[in-house]
Amino acid sequence: MQVKCVICDTIETLEDHSPEAKRLRNRRVHMYLCETCYERIGYKTIQRHSTGNFHLYRKKKQKRDLI
Fold it and tell me: What are the residues whose beta carbons fall under 8 Å from the beta carbon of 25, sequence distance 6 or more?
């Protein structure tokens, strides 16, 4: 299966029966990132976390007293 990176537009080949290929084939909203773009985004995210100005706004889980 040939896939294209959404950031740098490089075309790579994935094995047809790999979990990532099945995920991309069955769920069209998932995007493929090549290894270089994936590592670059991870590195820059870690840098933003270390500055202290980066906040993730996650939903607060409600405590269920009945369970």
Answer: 1
